[in-house]
Amino acid sequence: MLKVPEHQVAGHKAKKGLLGPLVDDSGKFYKPLQNNDARGSTELSFYTTLAVTPAIRRFFPDFYGTAVVPASDGSGPHPHLILEDLVSPYAKPSVMDVKIGSRTWNADDSEEYIAKCMKKDRETSSLPLGFRISGVKDSISSWEPSRTFLQKLSAEGVALLLRKFVSSFNAEDSDRDCDFAAEVFGSVLERLVELKAWFEVQTVYHFYSCSVLVVYEKEKGKAKPVVKLVDFAHVVPGNGVIDHNFLGGLCSFINFLKDILQPLHH
Amino acid sequence: MLKVPEHQVAGHKAKKGLLGPLVDDSGKFYKPLQNNDARGSTELSFYTTLAVTPAIRRFFPDFYGTAVVPASDGSGPHPHLILEDLVSPYAKPSVMDVKIGSRTWNADDSEEYIAKCMKKDRETSSLPLGFRISGVKDSISSWEPSRTFLQKLSAEGVALLLRKFVSSFNAEDSDRDCDFAAEVFGSVLERLVELKAWFEVQTVYHFYSCSVLVVYEKEKGKAKPVVKLVDFAHVVPGNGVIDHNFLGGLCSFINFLKDILQPLHH
């Protein structure tokens, strides 16, 4: 009983003729293994060899192996990673995908891929802000801005968007109430500060084009968010050097959250 | 009584026919104001408008205004910044210049300048490590590796070079004694952790192509280093965003120092 995910905000989407992820009713997320390049095998080997402490393991989706299932594009059986469906516990999830790092490529990539990524990093907020919002959605109000709009936001635009993500009043042009800021971003901040401490010392992995995914239920008292890292198709060995690209972008994103939370404490 | 600095390890050097910095006998450093582009005025306005707390101000050289003095290249009177000569208190200084950041350019630079910087960032350790060693010198042993050699070092090469910088035994192929590691890098680390705390919150300046300069006297009991930021010709406004490029590189450099200090504590 595989179906197209209802709340996917970033990445390739399954459509007629397009290969994309699928979900089942038991909370599993089936991600197609790309077989046209190394990306699929990179992500598979990342999950199969991931060796971190239990506290850090919580930042990653659960992994249940691989399976050959009918592809979303109707092309027949195709190998998929079986992952935890992070939005499945939520009735009406609010979801945000934030791609971390001012640079989404690394030195070992092909010149063609580097040029493509560099162009996008410069056209979006990645270069100036150290991250870009790849997707966002509020299942209650059906608010789901286009990816192009999101990725190119200025610092002011990102701040407004983040405030809207944690507001209950979603009329386009009004002030944000930020009703959920303390509960949601307070908790996200705690998790990200923990993640930052790990990135300050870990030299095993460099995460290019990887995202922080935030999911929460926009309902008072139930809004504790989940914070996970997703997308490991471009993880490379750190070889004794910290991931300064991810760390810098993460610190920048943390600073945006702090800016929203700080006025609440006055 | 202006003369060519004896211990300059990076930047344009004054030579016959070349414009470079000069020093006097009173501890002042005269840096030519570039008049062929915006760099000189950028650095001048940085020093004249710098508004930070006294604790952070200590990371920057003292600034004494400008003066028109005879240029080092013999072309006659030329405007210079008058700065603190950071090595003047030292009899036989050991000096290291570390250019921080994986990227030495910003989005407002010309395409030509961006291409030039990007090429160099990729050819040197800037891209993989988040910093490159621009120059190093030990005035006792006259050890002064070439800049090209330094800038292209691998992670292992940088670690070895840093160990050599704090060793008293400087024979090229022997083990490093790291006799000065605890005294010098212990103190550098303290200062850089303080600097990092500032970079985690300051959104006023983005420092491209800026260096951390470390100077100390290789003599037991007198080896307390000075740690300063230098070169502000490419500082741009932060506009509410932290300098994630500098911060990431700084964290990477800090991690290299920690790796050298940690075994000493066992």
From TrEMBL, chains A, B:
Keyword Lipid metabolism: no
Keywords from the UniProt entry: ATP-binding, Kinase, Nucleotide-binding, Transferase
GO MF annotations in UniProt: ATP binding; inositol tetrakisphosphate kinase activity; inositol-1,4,5-trisphosphate 3-kinase activity
Superkingdom of origin organism: Eukaryota
Coiled coil segments of this chain: none
Keyword Transferase: yes
EC number: 2.7.1.140, 2.7.1.151
Pfam families found in the cross-reference section: IPK (PF03770)
Swiss-Prot/TrEMBL catalytic activity: 1D-myo-inositol 1,4,5-trisphosphate + 2 ATP = 1D-myo-inositol 1,3,4,5,6-pentakisphosphate + 2 ADP + 2 H(+); 1D-myo-inositol 1,3,4,6-tetrakisphosphate + ATP = 1D-myo-inositol 1,3,4,5,6-pentakisphosphate + ADP + H(+)
InterPro entries, sorted: IPK, IPK_sf
One GO biological process term: inositol phosphate biosynthetic process
A single GO cellular-component term on record: cytoplasm
SUPFAM superfamilies: SAICAR synthase-like
Family: Belongs to the inositol phosphokinase (IPK) family.
Function: Inositol phosphate kinase with a broad substrate specificity.
UniProt-recorded name of the protein: Inositol polyphosphate multikinase
Upper classification of the organism: Eukaryota, Viridiplantae, Streptophyta, Embryophyta, Tracheophyta
